[in-house]
Amino acid sequence: MGEKIYDSMKKDIYIGIDPDISKSGVAIYNAENGEMYLKTMDFFNLMNYILVNSKNIIVCIESGYLNRKVNFHRNSSKHVAEKIAMATGVNHAVGILLYQLCEKNNIDVIRYVPKKGQAKMSADDMSNIVGTKIKSNPETRDAFRALFYSLPIKVKTIC
């Protein structure tokens, strides 16, 4: 389960986010009808979506930076490792900014910290969970994973 900083009142929309500097993975779950929407969004469109729907949502942000060790690229050259570390740090900053946006605007938010046993999902893993074959990418699967391990969701349809 993720860190809970939200009130217990049921919300209509749950948003899972895999933060990224260019296009964040986003999973939008409608609690009323069980529909899940998978997409990628740039920072400003995502920020706007959160603010427009602020009264009706719980936001789950993947926050891998809260893990003790976040760089597992041991076999990379120094140059490659530095590039990976820079990209990872920038993506973590996006997640931190989205968390602060929610916090400052009193939007219910969870920081989802991936744990051992909650490995990255393949397309097949995700299809097995929702019960149907779906089109996804690693970013949207990570956003879905943040929701799946943080909140009690029952997906009926992927749109």
Label this structure with key terms:
seven-stranded mixed sheet; Nucleotidyltransferase, domain 5; 159 residues; 36% helix; 23% strand
Describe the protein in words.
- By secondary structure, the chain is α/β, with parallel strands linked by helices.
- It has one domain: 2-Layer Sandwich (Nucleotidyltransferase, domain 5).
- It is built from four helices and seven strands, in the order ββββαβαβααβ.
- Strands 1-6-5-2-3-4-7 form a seven-stranded mixed β-sheet.
- β5, α2 and β6 form a beta-alpha-beta unit.
- The longest helix is centred in the middle third of the chain and has 27 residues.
Write the SSE topology.
Blueprint: E1 3-5, E2 13-18, E3 24-30, E4 35-41, H1 43-52, E5 57-62, H2 78-104, E6 108-112, H3 123-130, H4 138-150, E7 157-158
Parallel strand pairs: 2-5, 4-7, 5-6
Antiparallel strand pairs: 1-6, 2-3, 3-4
Helix pairs in contact: 1-2
Give the SSE string: EEEEHEHEHHE
Q: What is the CATH class designation? A: Alpha Beta
Question: What overall geometry do the principal axes of the alpha carbons give?
Answer: globular
Distance between the termini: 25 Å
Q: Determine the CATH superfamily.
A: Ribonuclease H-like superfamily/Ribonuclease H
Oligomer: single chain
Summing up helix and strand content along with how strands pair, one would put the structural category as: alpha/beta
Question: Using only CA atoms, what is the Rg?
Answer: 15 Å
Largest β-sheet summary: 7 strands, mixed
Topology-level CATH name:
Nucleotidyltransferase, domain 5
Q: How many strands appear in the DSSP assignment?
A: 7
Low-confidence stretches: 1-8
The share of residues in extended strands comes to 15-25%
CATH architecture: 2-Layer Sandwich
Report strand order across the widest sheet: 1-6-5-2-3-4-7
Mean pLDDT metric: 81
